[in-house]
């Protein structure tokens, strides 16, 4: 994305710095780093440290835990886009012998496969991956806890299966596929499977005293696709821009938008959250955020993106139970969005090639029964259908090669809108998934299902 924005205002920068200073102090973190990107460009970085005169910079690595899952999901979506897998495929079709092969790839991505949240003992985050050399060691004797596809139940082993799926289909390691297919094309040179200096050390801070001890940094082995990666504020800001807009070198915009669609209803009691295909969703005030949280012993991390505001925020700390980075990152987005709201692009007419008289004649009011809707032209010969009064089913549509349009959101997502013509070529009505839209409400002679009363409109 190209940015026309200048640096943030000094007052905004102070509010951002104050937020992370409070987080580091109250969260008792050895260090805390954060950054904000606007329209794809990093516009602010801040750091606090317990060491006087020394603070990490935007290229200092921290372990990012489950943010790793988003990278794994991107690899899986690439396989889908290349036609090598389908999201509805059972796992067994591509990865045999797991014992849970009836679950689908989509269910694994969205944590609705019914799998357990964790591996059998010992605690996988604090023990070497060599302790779980086979998938059977990751899944254990009772891998399924819930009905398949019915509920959201977060599962770390599920992402081990997805990493193994990538390896089975690609014929290379998960780490190599990630490096060549995602990290290198996006220029994420400081995102690695093992720490590369400069990097922060992971610490546990005593809950009742201001003392601390180092945490182990284990290689997670088969569990790596669930939480192995190390990254930086700089790299994660760039990755946030990718999650907002896509990048055809890695994953097109339509596919990253698909990842943001809720896969199943949120778990009971999780009224503000949700989960797409490898992406967490958060409703924060009036704002919808996408991204992921992460933690491993010694580290907490968060990346939140507000697509509507064109903002991404990263918060990283090196303490096991340190600051609530999820809250801080959401606050950083809010601070910038409220202090310096996004400036809209100037209005411009559509290119001449996208508009003709026949297309233009379709615009204006249409009636579904007596409900009034308006049809207007969007970019790329797309259209928008929206109610003219009150609330109703608004949707955007993109054109289909064979004619007509397909719905992109809301009730009509995936439904086909087409123009139905009379024998003489004139427009009779619009058909939207069998719903008929006419130019007048219940006009005599129109193609209204069930017909129109011959006596027409009347008073009492």
TrEMBL record:
Keyword field contains Zinc-finger: no
Protein origin, superkingdom: Bacteria
Keyword Transferase: no
Residue span, Beta-lactamase-related domain: 25-336
Pfam families: Beta-lactamase (PF00144), DUF7586 (PF24491)
InterPro entries linked to this entry: AmpC-like (IPR050491), Beta-lactam-related (IPR001466), Beta-lactam/transpept-like (IPR012338), DUF7586 (IPR056008)
Name used for this protein in its record: Serine hydrolase domain-containing protein
Organism, as annotated: Streptomyces roseoviridis
Lineage: Bacteria, Bacillati, Actinomycetota, Actinomycetes, Kitasatosporales
